Amino acid sequence: MTVVLSSSSPVASVAVFGPDWRLNCSKSQQGNNMASGALLQMLGDIGFSLEDATLCVADLGPGSFTGVKVAVTMAKTLAFALGVKVAGVTAFDLVSAVQSVAIPSRKGEYFLREPGREPEIVRALPTGSIGYGATFDNQQYPLAERCTAGVVSKATDPVDLIPLYIAEPSISKAKDTTVMGGPNA
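The chain above was modelled as a monomer; its predicted structure follows.
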C-alpha cells in the first residue's frame, strides 16, 4: 500500500492506494501547517494500518514552508520506521497534473507551473490557471487523493527525499550580530 501525505496548503490530506494504484480510502481536514499527529490521526480515521505501507509519498511543495516540512518529515520517519522507500510528488500535481497551476508565494506573487514547463515565480496569472490564494474564487488545493503513479518521483531512501524549493528562503539577517552571539558578544 502507498501512503500519500500532503500538508503544503491550508488543507491537509492523506490517501492510501492499493498495489494497482486504485484509491482505497482518503480523508481531508482543514488546517494550516498540520502537525504530524493530525496526519496520523487521519490515517487512523480511515482505518489504515501502518504495517501495510510499502511506500510513503510526501507532498514536496511548493507551499507553506512548515507544512511542506511536516509531510516530508513524516514520510521519511514512517519510511525509516517501517523499512520502506519514500517518494515525492509536487503540490502542483496534487492540484492538477495537466493544467496550469498557481500556488501562493509571497504577497502578490505565485509559483506557476504550466504543463511541460519548469515552475516560475509570477505576479500575473495566465487565464485558465487553477490553484488557491486570494486570486481564485474556486480554490483548488493540493489533495493526496489526486496523486497518480505517473507523477510520483522515483522511490528512494528516506535520507534522499528533499522538499521542492523554487525560491530562496526569505530569511532576514540580524542587524546587530551581538544579538546572535557574533564576535562582539
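The first strand starts at residue 2 and ends at 6.
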